[in-house]
Structure formats: structure tokens, C-alpha cells
Amino acid sequence: MTKPYEPLRIEGLDIEPTVCARCGFCTFVCPAYLDTLWDSQSPRGKLYQLRDLIKKKQPIPPDFAARIFNCTLCGACQEICQTNIPLLRFWQLTRQEIGELDEWPEIVNYIDGALKETQNIMEMDQTDRTLWTDMVDDLVEDRLGIEAEVAYFAGCNISFKGTLAHMGENTIKVMNAAGVDFTILGEEEQCCGNPYFVAGGFEKAKELARHNIIKLKELGVKTVIFNCPGCHRAFAHEYPHLIGKESTEGLEFLPFSEFVLRLLNEGKIKFTKNYPHVVAWHDPCELGRHQDIYNPAREVLNAIPGIEVRELKHNRNKARCCGGGGLLKGTDPLMSVRISGRRIEEAEKTGAEFLASECPSCTMSLNDGIEHKESKMKFKDLSQIVVEALGL
Amino acid sequence: MIDKKHFQQLADIVGEDFFSAEGYMTHLYSHDIAALPGIVNDVMNTQAEAIAQPTTSEILSNLLKFCKKENIPVIPRGHGTSGYGGALPTKGGLVIEMTRINQIFHINKGAMTVEVGAGIIWGKLLEDLEEEDLTLAAYPSSAPSSTVGGWVAAGGSGIGSTKYGGIREQVVDLEVVLPDGQIIRTENTPSDFFEDETQEPFFKGDEKLQYAADVYNETDGNMTSLFVDSNGALGIISKVVLKVIPLRTIKPLLFSFPNQEQTFGAMQEILRLSKPYYLHFITSEFYGMLTEVDHAPSTQNEWLVLCAFEGSEEQTEDEAMRIINAMKMYHATLESEEIAHHEWDERFYPMRIKRLGPSLAPSEVYVPLNRMDDFIDHCNRHFKGERMAIEGAVNNQDEVAVLTWFLDDERRRIPFLFGWYRSLDVINIGVKNGGRAYSIGMWNVAHSSKFYGKEDYTKMANLKQKTDSKGYLNSHKVFPGPLYLSTRIGILIMLAAGFIVPIAIMFAWWLIPSVLTAYVPWIVVNNLTSFLVWFIVGVLIGFVVQEFVNLIPISVILSIGTPFLRFGRKIFH
Lengths: 392, 573
What we know:
A: alpha/beta; Rossmann fold; 3 domains; 8% strand; B: 4 domains; eight-stranded antiparallel beta sheet; globular
């Protein structure tokens, strides 16, 4: 047991609740606040309550701990903050404090157990890691665990959830079409540790991080491709922080859109087919606000002949969350789906045929939102659009 | 105070989901943007007892009727983004937060007006109007989080006010729920509304909760105007009809100047030659603080003036050229378009420097533009040794709404308490330099009469007296109210007096025994019984003192206390 608020204190963030200007700018961009309109759910309200607790060195009470997890970690509060409080890190460390008080929500403890037991969040056998490759078996059978400069890291969601497997399949098809020499880790791929980063269980993620990096380096990999922004963020931003910058030296981590853009620029693929569709683009929080990556997907879409890309009212750094981040889907699924529904309402207003993004979590949430709202809007992952436009 | 039996009834009126009396929740709704010295919260009863979020004007009406009948203090609240104490409880009570009445009811493109719920956020309204190629003529710098009703109630000027005036000039009509629950439209309400018993408001509320209204027999003038700036003391604004303008080009220019004289001379020249949409300055000290937090633009000089024009592309270009040429004689440097746009985007972010505090002691006052030089010199002399940032935006009456920010640290309780005098002194310095208070709320009640004008203030006072004689609705705001010591402090005073009296008697016997023997030999403390007797006498004296203090208006306490705070700050700074 550490001293109260030690995680925040170590990084000098225990002063931040006092730095908060209480202007409330964070409230009307916060999905949890907008869902309830109670200040107790807003970043401002939570900071106000934490300010007093930190001052009095009192532990976070269980009901407040639960509210801290009523948050998608979308980072909209950090983006709009008047006093530049690094809120994303702040919430992560506050969750770490909650973990150290043994007050993690049940779902986090379940995921923790699953990761310890099976190295994946689905609690499935690691031998099933390659189930997603069934439809592209012929393209990957010689790629498992081989040495190559490019690796594809599927992540737990794509690996184990059948409804998301197409994202992996599409990426393989594109790599194959571009003649990329690539490898996949298969059973040696373990969870990237993102659930731990989201829950503030940093120490628990160390082993997973080290394993993944060692396996990639053993195969001589230099570039790792991701469909999942959560995995990408874990490798690109959390690993250097967690296991040292030297651990990721010599490795490049690319989200799918950036990879496709590179293939286009290098002339390895080319869109020639007309693709007469109107698409609205949703920026995933973990790619956009968390990593400042907004343009590659738009550039890829704009390179497709016949396509019309429309922006949602809240886009880029002001994009509203899909509702799927921060483990909210597990801690408060109803709130999560209502948030998704609101994003769908916004997408409907663009008049686009379908909403597109590049994130397995957004894919699940936005499809839930469509169902919740009984919307006629369709959702397509970027990889699907790319594959269709290439005629693969 | 709210009787516990009333909680369920309040929840029934507003709806269970929109009512809370939980401690952590009431704590969150018992403050506004300003950090107050800890002792203020210790002394005053600023803790709300329950929160209600009405969803319709009718529910709000029923809430007020119930609260008036049960004499439950009510504090209306937008989103708590002001710092004048207008939304602070003073004797517990029910906070009514308006953010759920947040619809856009009607956009009238013919009359160029929009009707909205008072709880809508300015930022959301701006976004939605843009979809109709419309925008607001003026909005507050707190637009990303403040409510329309909040600004109408608090008053003031903001972005766009240099050209189009403050919030007072934007309001066409209001729907107001009066303290007795009646709902009126101010535009359609004849000025003799309070005289005419037969006049029917369009909604009379739930009959079960309908109470006999007082007979109003005197009011005059424009009803809309009377409710703007009234801080919710006369009624709660539930809907607002605002002016809108076509969405046109905004062209920001940023000039930097080498010194104060050139800055204010140039600003006067800008107003002589044109009518900018927004004219704003920051001092070199503010610039220095922005540099420390890595938010200062890379400019030639450190006195900055942002001048934004609004209109057609041609108009804005013409006006911009005229000003660019005129600024040469003021040694101005025209900064790049990119920097100008960055500063325009920063118009919502005056508190970037708070991190340096980590607290800020703010103050705001209107000062005539032609007296700004004197005002700033006066402040620099008066607040020597304090780290003070000053900025200001001009309204349409050539007045500057000056915001001063003093860096401070609320965790250092004593220096922070004494530092409170600065916020009060800035206003006094502004007034001495021909200015006036920016907003009244609770802390500036001493300025009410001058702020509203004697005639309007009398009308407001009459209205308050006739509709809310017990002062249950937002007491202490606009009109002076007595200090309500918290129960904790009351008990503390009585106990302290209980001990002080017998100890003082013992001390007196040691110091002047002959005097006591000669005149009051019966005043003696020589055993436990006599100690207890005088202890009880002390407690009673403490009770009387406490009751006496409870009669003193807060504004008087602030006036008396300011010199002590000023002195204390000199010692503890």
C-alpha cells in the first residue's frame, strides 16, 4: 500500500485539481456529463471533489471511484482545458490510485484475471489467436512467425471477435496486393496491455509489453502495422514510458491509414476504380486527440476516385467520442450506448451513406449506436473501404 | 434551511432523476468559478442542501410556489461560471440549476431573433446558429460553458460588444418565473402588470400548488430591461429571445506596441476611425505570464491589441486597411495573420496563467477608455509588489471591461484571505477613475444603487418587496442582506464568550482588585459553581453578539473589513 495519491504526487499532478479554473469548458465536451447533465460526472466536478480529498489526504470513496470510471478517456477535457491540465494522464493515475485502494470496478478485475490467465482480454486460449485468419488462410499460412521487416499486430478484439475479423483480413489483403513482405506473431502475440493503461494498472502491463517487443525484435521487425488505435497508442506512447525508450528504438508503429498512405505514395497500390459513395469520417480518440493523427485517413479517402468525404460537426480534435473508450462499455454499458447513439445522430446530419472510422472499439460502439437509435446509417471500417475501392 | 420532509416533495415536483440532496452533489453546486478564502465558507452558510434541475418552465413555476410557501431559500444557477457570488447560497437552501431547459425553440429569420431555453450553452447556440448561416451579435468569453440565462442574469459585455453592445442590447424578450410562480413574458407584459389584478399570465401553474399572489400595484418602465442584470433576485429567467445577425467574415488584426501610452492612444484612434466587432488588449505583464506558461504569441512587442472586424469581406478588408495605416503613428507592429487568428481563437482563454498561481484573485470593472492610462498607473502604485495581469475589452460605450488577475495560492489560507482586498480595491480604483462595477452578484452589492441607477434600483426594490418580501429567492444578491453565520461559527462564538467572561473576571481581580471590591464585589469567580454561572452568562452574551452580527449586511462587513485585509496582506504577503 502506497501513501495516499502517491501515483499523482510522483508525477507532480496532485496540484492539478487546484490549478483547475472551474470554468467548466470541459463539461460540455464530456460524454459522461452530456449523458447525465450532473456536475458530479464532469471533469470539473471530479477535480473539485479530488481537490478536497487530496488536501485532506482522504481516500477516494467507493461511489466516487465508480464515477471516475464513468469516463471514456476520450481526452476532450484535456483538449479544451483552460489551464492545460494533462487530464488524460491525470485520470489514468487517479485510476491507478483506485486500483491501489482495491476499488477497481468488477469488469477491470475480470480483465485483470483474464490477462493474467490467458494473455488476452477474452479469456480465450492463445492457440485461437489466429482464428481471424480463416478467410485469408492462403495469404497468411506462410507468414506465421517468419522473419520480416513488417509485422501486423491484430490485437485482442480483431483476433477473437468474429465481427471484427474482417479488419485483419482486409489489412492482409492490402499488404498482399502491395507485395509487402510481412509477418504475424500468431500465438506469440499477447494483449498490448492497453486495458491496464486505461485502468491505471501500469505495472501489470510490463510483462506483456516486454514479451511483445521481444518477439517482434526476434523476427527482425522494423515496422508494425495496427488496425487498433489502442494497441498503436500502447506501443508508441505507453511502452517507452513503461519499459524505457530504448525498448522501442528501431521500431516504427503505423496505424492502418498511415500505412496505406505510404503504400499509395510509394506507388505500391493505386485506386483506379470509381467508388461513388458519400462517407462521413469519425476520428477515433486514441488516434486523434491522444496522438494527434488526423490526416492520413482523410488523405487515403480523398485519393479514392468518386468518393465524397463529409465532416461531422465535431471533428478532428473536437470530435465527440464513440462511447467505447476508457472501459465504459464494461463499467456502464447503457451510458456507453447512449453516447454512441448521440454520435450516430450527429453522423446522420451529414447526409452521408455511411460513417467510417479505423478502430475496432469505435466499430463496435458505433454499430451499437446505430442499433440503439434504429438508424439507417451504415458503418464501414476504413480497411473495408480501401479493399472495396481496390477491388480486392 | 430545508426541512427533511420537504426533500421528497421537491423531488416529486422536479422528478426524481433531476433532484439530489446527496452531500457530494450539493458540495459541487455550492461554489462558482471564484476560489473563496476558506474562512468565507466557515463563516457563511454557503452549502446548498439540495439541487433541482427543472426541465420545463411549468415545473420551475411549481418549484418556486412550493419553496415560497415553505420559505425554502432558492438560488438560481446557470452553470456556475461567474465569480461575483450571484449563484452562491447564503443560508443553505435549494439550488435550481437551469441547464436542462436548453432547447432552441424558434429561429425567426424575418425578425432576426432566436428563442432559447435559458439553460442552453452559448457555445452550443453559436454552433447551431452557424448551420443556419446566422450568429450572435455578442456572446461572453465564457461561451464554451456559460448559459444564456446566466449571462442575461449576471449582465456584462463580451465578444462582439464593441460593435453590438452587451447582453442588455441583445435581449428582445424574456420568459420569467416570478417568485410566486407566475410565468410572464416581459415584452408582452404591460408596464402596469403589477397593478392589474385581472391581467392573466399565460400559465398559472398546477392548481394544487397555486397560492394567492400578492396584489402588485406599482411598476413602470421596460420589463425586459428590469430583469437583465437582476441576478435572479426578481425571478428566474426560463426563456430568452435574442437578436441574431447574419454569419459573416471575421477579420482579426493583432498589433503589438512598445508601451502603455501608445497602446491606449491607438485603441482610441481605432474607435475614432472604425467600429470593430471586438477590441481587446493585454498588458506587458500579462504577456510575461503567458510566456511563462508557453502561451504567449511570438510578437514584436509585449503590449497587444486584438482588433477584429465583422462584416462582408469587402467591408472588413476596407476597415482593416484603414486601421493598419492609422496605426503606423503609434509605433505599432502589425503581427502576422496566423498570430492574429491564434489570438482570436484564444479569446475564450483568459485564465491560461492560472497555473502560475495556482490560484487567481480576479476582479472586473468598467473604466472609460480615455482613463485607462490613469487606472493602470493607479493600480501599479496601489498593488506594488503584487503580480498582476490586466486585460480588457471595449464595449460600445467606449468603456473597457477590465479584468485584473492577481497570482495567488489558495492553499496558503491566511495570505489568500488577506489578498481578497485586491478584488474589492480594483473596483474602487476603477470607480475613482470614472468607472463603474461590472456586475453586482453578491460581492458588489454596495455598488447596486449606482450600478442600476437610483430610479431603476428603486423599481427593482419595490418589485422585490412586493413579490418576495421574505427574500427567499436569491437573497443577498442585488439587495443587501444580513450575514447568516453558519451554525458552527455561531456555537463557536457562544462557547468562546462562555470561556472569555469568567477568565476576564479572574484577570480583572488580579489586575484591579480594589476597583472590583469597591464597586462590583459580587462579580467574582472563585470556585467551579461561580465559573459555571459566568460561563453561562458568557454564552448568553455570545448569543447576543452572534445575533447582532447577523444583522450586519455582508456589504458592510466587506467595507469595514477591507482595510484590515489590506493591512494583513502587507504583513503576510
